[in-house]
Amino acid sequence: MTDKQKNLIVRSITGTLFVAIMVCGFLNPSAMILLFAIITALSLWEYTGLVNDHCEDVQVNRFISTVAGVYLFVAVAAWRTGIVSNFAIMVPYVLTIVYLLICELYTGTKNAVNTWAYTMLGQMYVAMPLALVNILAFEMAHDGSGARYDMLLPLSVFIFLWTNDTGAYCTGSLFGKHKLFPRVSPAKSWEGSVGGGVLVLVVAAVIGYLANNGADAHTLNIYQWMGLGLTVCVFGTWGDLVESLFKRTLGIKDSGNILPGHGGMLDRFDSSLMAIPAAVVYLYTITMF
C-alpha cells in the first residue's frame, strides 16, 4: 500500500468520525454546548500556539486567552438559553480582555502592539464566531417561558459547508481551469466554487422541503433555506481563504495535526468561522423585512 493510499484511508476514517461526532453533538442541547466549548478551547489553544511559535517578538497569553474564549462561549449560551437575562454575565469576560491589554505593561514583550493585535484577533476570529453558534441553536420564547432548541439550523450550516467542499472538490477536479484566488489558494477554481454552490442550493431546497412537511413547519421556508445555503457557501469559501492567508503569513502548511489527515482545528473549522456569523446576520436580516 502506497503512502497516498494510507493517507486516504486515514483521512476517510478521521472525516467519518468527525462528522459522526458533530451530528451526535447537535442531537442534544447540553451535548452541543459541551462540544463547542471544547472546540473553542482547542481552536484558541492551537491559534495562540501558532502565533507564539511563528511570529517574532509576540507572546500571547495562551492560557488566559483560551479561558476567555471559552467563557465567552459559555456566557452567550447561558444568556441564549435563558439561564441569565442581563449583561452581568459578560463582566468577567470584559475584565479578562482589559487584563490582557494591561498585562503587556509588565511582561516586557518586545512587540506589545503585535501581541495585543494577535490577542484580540484570536477573540474576534475564533471565539466570537463559535460563540454565535448559540444564536443559531437557541431561540428565546416571546412569552418568556424559556428557550427553544433548534438543532437543524446550526447543523445545516455544517451540512452546507461539507456539501460545498464536496461539490467544489468534485467539480473543480473535473472542470477546474480558472483559478479563484491563486495568491492565497492555488488549488481552488471558479468552476469548483460554482459547482459547490449549485449542490448546496439543491441540498438546501431538500432540507427546506423536509423541514416544512412535517407536523410542525420550520420558521424558514424553502427559499429562505436556499438563501441561507448560498450565504453559508459564499462566506464559507471566504473563511477558507482567510485561514489560508493566515497560514501563508505565518509560513506554515497546516494549523496542526490533531486531526490525522485533516490537519488542525483551524483547518477543520476555517469555513465555519466566517459562515456562522454570516448565517446569524442573514437570519436577523430576513426577519426585519
UniProtKB/TrEMBL annotation:
Answer whether the UniProt record assigns the keyword Nucleotidyltransferase to this protein. Answer: yes
What's the Enzyme Commission number for this chain? 2.7.7.41
One cellular component GO annotation, for this chain's record? plasma membrane
Question: Per its UniProt record, what InterPro entries does this chain match?
Answer: PC_trans
A GO term, aspect molecular function: phosphatidate cytidylyltransferase activity
Superkingdom of this protein's organism: Bacteria
Pathway assigned to this chain's UniProt record: Phospholipid metabolism; CDP-diacylglycerol biosynthesis; CDP-diacylglycerol from sn-glycerol 3-phosphate: step 3/3; Lipid metabolism
Q: Top EC class per UniProt? A: transferase
Q: Where in the cell is it found?
A: Cell membrane
Note the topology in the membrane. Multi-pass membrane protein
Listed under catalytic activity are: a 1,2-diacyl-sn-glycero-3-phosphate + CTP + H(+) = a CDP-1,2-diacyl-sn-glycerol + diphosphate
Q: Which UniProt keywords apply?
A: Cell membrane, Lipid biosynthesis, Lipid metabolism, Membrane, Nucleotidyltransferase, Phospholipid biosynthesis, Phospholipid metabolism, Transferase, Transmembrane, Transmembrane helix
- Its family? Belongs to the CDS family.
- Keyword Coiled coil present in the record's keywords: the answer is no
Q: Where are the transmembrane segments?
A: 12-42, 62-80, 87-109, 115-137, 149-169, 189-210, 222-239, 269-287
What GO biological process terms are annotated to this protein in UniProt?
CDP-diacylglycerol biosynthetic process
Write the protein's name. Phosphatidate cytidylyltransferase
Q: Which organism is it from?
A: Hallella colorans
